[in-house]
Amino acid sequence: MSKEITAAQTAAYQKELANDTNAQVLERAVSHQGILATAADFASDRDMTPVFSIDLDTGKVANQKQSGRCWMFAALNTMRHHLADLFKLSDFELSQNYTNFWDKFEKANYFYENVLATADQPTSSRKVAFLMATPQQDGGQWDMLCAIIEKYGIVPKSVMPETYNSSKSSELNKTLNLKLRKDAVVLRKLVADNAIADDIAAAKDKMLKEDYRILSFALGEPVSEFDFEYRDDDKNYHIDKGLTPKSFFDKYVGWNLSDYVSIINAPTADKPYNHTYTVEMLGNVVGGRSVKHLNVSMADFKQLAIKQLQAGQSVWFGCDVGQESDRQKGIMDPNYYHQDDLFNVDFDLSKADKLDYGESMMTHAMVLTGVDLVDGQPTKWKVENSWGEKVGTKGYFVMSDAWMDKYCYQVVVNKQFLPDDLRKIQETEEPTVLAPWDPMGALA
């Protein structure tokens, strides 16, 4: 039976607070400065000095501005680091707008297919409600960008630069989601009316044609062929004519994307370590690469990232960036704020409980470009963000190893760094399918 709060209870709470000699001082501090400023421990500034035993030179940071494309920026950054080293292009960027266009176009089709697959369910079903909550958005995961590149390739940023709507995406997302929800009404009605397959296909084709027009106006139409003209760091002039987006990727990046795999750390009871997982309804390209995660212990997770850094290659990773971090200083450290001491309240939750109870999930993707090893063990990590140069140290953040333990959920590594047993599992095991709303399906 429910119990109301009684007057006796509140009186007791008030009396206890009145007897606390520090309460008034703390109340003044918190009410005037805010919780985080009052709880900050600036000893973390000293401990998070941006000096690392392994430190890759990756040039200037990019800026996703007012968009949620961190996963895309981070992935393209790992590729441009490689390209820049090969071709002496230190300030070069790949076009985030190009991959953004095709991602949104493919997400529309992916949404339509999921609408049709669930058209026999009521709008009150959890799966239908999940689909309609956010038909598409800026976010994504590593495998989703690979699916785009494998189908469409990539281009230099100079070939398809940013637009107002790519850098400030709220208007476009609102417009697209309005249209996609309306399209869902039409598709579900066609199924309910027992329309023939040809009529449903024709309706969907019309919808996709409209989506393409909207995206072309907002983001610009993608190029199919272009010339790549540039000066390298030695001021030598180059021009490469008649490239396609796919031939550009093959020539200037040249990665076998199937070699790069998603490694997660999700210590929840439903996801035993050393097994693979996928997420229902998570993806963008119908018929393209699907999301597949290999769940490992945190010790294995870190060692894989370190091996790739030691080999001179940066590491895409996903985390919950808003937790216990200072955006302006670029410090990510669980010892930076002490709300528990401030309020005399135990706020501690295990990583598994944070995931299971909705306190944490992957919200942001960045790039590991360095690590500080002391006696072979990591103490802090260098992080390349995509929020421009005005935060952190010219856009680079410092992440303590303890913060990685608590809030990092995913890294992408070349499977050559996997031990034989884990590589076999990753390559051969059929993944367990998780529910659409599982936290490992969160989009960065």
UniProtKB/TrEMBL annotation:
A GO biological-process term: response to toxic substance
Domain of life: Bacteria
Compartment(s): Cytoplasm
GO cellular component: cytoplasm
Entry keywords, A to Z: Aminopeptidase, Hydrolase, Protease, Thiol protease
Molecular function terms, GO-annotated: cysteine-type aminopeptidase activity
Gene3D superfamilies: Cysteine proteinases
Residues annotated as the enzyme's active site: C70, H364, N385
Family: Belongs to the peptidase C1 family.
Protein name in UniProt: Aminopeptidase
Species annotation: Levilactobacillus namurensis
